[in-house]
Amino acid sequence: MKKIISILVLCLSSFSFSYDQSDSLYSGDIEYFDDNEVESDEIYTLKIRGEVYNYIYPTINKDGTRYLPMLEFFKSIGFKNYKIENEKIIMHFGSNLNKKEIDLKKLSKDDYLLQDDEYYLSENIFKKYFVDEMRIDKENLVLNIIPNFITPNEVGLMLNSTEKRLKENDDRPNLIYTSEKKLIDTGNLRVNLEGSLNNHTQRGDFKQKDWDGFLEYQSPLLYGEFYTEYDLKDKKFGDFRLTYNDILPNYELEVGYYGRDREKGLSFKKNLGYYDLDGKNFIINEKVALGSRVELLFNGIPIEVQNEENGEVIFANNLIKNGRKFILKIYLPDGKIEEKEIKINEDFNQQNKGEFGYDIYIREVDESHKVDRDLNIYYGWSENLTLGLGYVQLSERFNDRYIYSQELKSELIYSDTAFSNPYTLTYKVQKALNRHKNEEIDYEDRYSQQFMFDADIKKWSINYEQVENGRYYDLKREQYLDLEYELNDVITLTYEREDLLNRKTKKSQNDYSYGVELNNSWKSLLVTYNLDHNKNGDLEHGLDFYYTGFDYFITKWTNKVDKDGNYETELKLTNKTWSDNLDYSIGAKYSSKYEDIYTFDFTLKLDNWFKMGTTLEKNGRKNTFVGIDRVVSLRNPTVNMNTLDSSTLKIVAFSDNNNNNIIDYGEDKLEGIEINLGSNTVITNSEGIAHLYGVPSYTEYELESKSIRPSLKADANRIKVKGTGTSNILVMLPIKPMISLTGFIDTENYSKDSDVLNSLKIRIQDKKNNFNKVLYPEYDGFFYLSDITPGEYEIAITYAGENEDVLVYKENINLVYTNENRGENEKEFKLSRKGVKNEKNN
């Protein structure tokens, strides 16, 4: 009420002032229209970039300083992404959430006023944080502000504009081409040869020459993807694998011969991109194109960099934990960059209602001449409840011989929320089916039941697990507790405890540890710190820095103190994408336990086939290598495929005369159509064919096509391709011939003085309403329409005048491209007082 009365008083008082308009004063970016006004509280009209946002915006004048209300300003522009805590105002602006912070404790008493729960900031402070330019019109009480950030309304306008542009782009039909699955076909071959020279100066002129090399081959086989490798030095084959991707969404089936003993195996499981290491830490394991270089980003900062090995990257970092999101930034050998998002979420095999989940592993064991099996199936009974059933068969030694240990598993998984807090309960029972026993063990006593509770309650994360074991096991009971408390966005407190009850001694053994985790980033710098203290008093520290602010390389500096007090530090510089052909890393490492060690690594790759590098160590050892690493297509060995796991596009461009996106009899194949994919450009030959080699598989790409002939529209469709393995993809590229319509309106039934032609409107639109245009006839009755694609159109002619009797007439007409008319369509329309009649083509 006090604030309302103040505003009314200010409104009344504002009418009692008069102003001198003769002078104006500019102070910095602030423009004043009066310099001699008596100080008072005033109510202004607030404008943002000239548009009114608030007609009642109160200000306070005190001791020659103007104060502007911050929260009222936020309310006026619809800004809500702020919080006030500990006398700090923390704000995030724009679509990029740029952070600003006002620490009131660091401001002087003249910098702000606090009245009626409103923060009035002085003009200078207000301008510093929120304003690019401010104009104050005291005569009309108008405050015009140009903010130094994007307002929520402007963000909405940009999103609407982007949405509209995307919608217009999406109106084009999508044509998606995928791999041709074949019984058998030739594929891609990778050749890797490397010669090295080892030099040890501390042992005189000792030098050792060595070499290494391998071949990798991948090709379509049995409608799947075949892979094998061959060691050129040892003259031995590696694994033989046959993979089928996406038999079910995100599932992978693999069969093969593994290891030197050629053990047969099969697996069928969901590919999440990561796997659980110990219930707390996770390993990111993702397939990428061969020859790729991958950065692992956390909070936008690269924390690890790896080159792929055997078509995959594996990241193990103490920052990879449940509930966190990571980005894989993949630099492909051909210069393209891909990004994949990895969300670490322990789903406990939860399935959606009515869905099945599978985890199947079968592997032959050469030593026992038996087959291990681990078969699991899950079914979503409801949106909350999942049922699981499993069977395990493992070969084990019993009484100096191998037997099958067989177990049956059942599991209940229930997930829900309570007061907006998610939780999961699981109950698992596992029982041996064997009847084997001797003096020491009895398989009938081999059973266990496990209960688990996992929940996120506000800032708490809780995981409790209890296992009750049968007499077969030494431990009668196992209890595990993990607690995490998120103190704020930066600091997390942790506690872990385990209690183990021994069956024979009947004694309980327990252990616990507690610690602190800190993760914070400032622009290009990420700092992580962890402390762990256990029951025995052992203390471990870790402090890591990741910095990406340098132009040409990424910096990683790790520091660790183990429980024995040993200190280890490592500094590593890894290049950014400074050059497509250059890849280098420099590292220095020190350990108080193993004395100082430093290494220098340098690697150079040229045109994706020649490589050389060197490694230097403090003790005088030096390793230098030179080699080749090249992938070729056996279909065309002269072409560099860039990656082994890549597809070949065969593109056929044709004139789609009837606009049905299918090549029909009589439609010509077109020469000179340019197709672009990234930095690769090809042009169709006289047969309308072009090839693109080395397109990485398992990723969707969009082709761009264009024609130098204005009469041909090459981008009428969105052409997308997605390959699997080393397959061929046949792309039929429809090119739309641009056609024209010449129309003539015959008015012989009307007098020469009639205003019919001047009052006619012709509307032409296609069936999908992607094309809609209004035309008016010329003085002689002709009208023209060009640069449209073949198809069925509706033409409506209406009369807007009053002197003649002309009825509206609508008709669907088919505009075509043929070898005879070359896209030039002609039609005549004859007006009569009974309507408009459509005559046949001339």
Characterization of this structure:
- With 842 residues, this protein is mainly beta.
- The chain is 6% helix and 58% strand.
- It is built from four helices and 61 strands.
- It has a 24-stranded antiparallel beta barrel. A nine-stranded mixed β-sheet has the order 1-2-11-12-3-4-5-10-9.
- A hairpin with a 4-residue loop joins strand 34 and strand 35 (491-502).
- It is globular.
- Residues 1-39, 158-169 and 835-842 have low confidence and may be disordered.
Any descriptors?
disordered C terminus, 24-stranded antiparallel β-barrel, disordered N terminus, mainly beta, 842 residues, 9-stranded mixed beta sheet
Brief summary:
The protein has 842 residues and is mainly beta.
Walk me through the topology.
Layout: H1 2-14, E1 25-27, E2 30-32, E3 42-48, E4 51-62, E5 65-69, H2 70-77, E6 82-85, E7 88-93, E8 98-103, E9 112-115, E10 118-122, H3 123-130, E11 131-137, E12 142-147, H4 152-170, E13 174-178, E14 188-200, E15 206-221, E16 224-231, E17 236-245, E18 251-258, E19 263-270, E20 274-276, E21 282-287, E22 293-298, E23 301-307, E24 312-315, E25 325-331, E26 337-343, E27 356-365, E28 370-380, E29 385-398, E30 401-418, E31 421-432, E32 447-457, E33 460-469, E34 475-486, E35 491-502, E36 508-522, E37 525-534, E38 539-547, E39 553-561, E40 567-575, E41 585-591, E42 595-606, E43 610-617, E44 621-633, E45 636-640, E46 646-655, E47 673-677, E48 680-683, E49 689-696, E50 700-707, E51 712-713, E52 718-722, E53 728-737, E54 739-746, E55 760-766, E56 772-775, E57 782-788, E58 791-799, E59 809-815, E60 824-832, E61 835-838
Parallel strand pairs: 2-11, 3-12, 13-52, 46-53, 54-60
Antiparallel strand pairs: 1-2, 3-4, 4-5, 5-10, 6-7, 7-8, 9-10, 11-12, 14-15, 14-44, 15-16, 16-17, 17-18, 18-19, 19-27, 20-21, 21-24, 22-23, 22-25, 25-26, 27-28, 28-29, 29-30, 30-31, 31-32, 32-33, 33-34, 34-35, 35-36, 36-37, 37-38, 38-39, 39-40, 40-41, 41-42, 42-43, 43-44, 44-45, 46-49, 47-48, ...
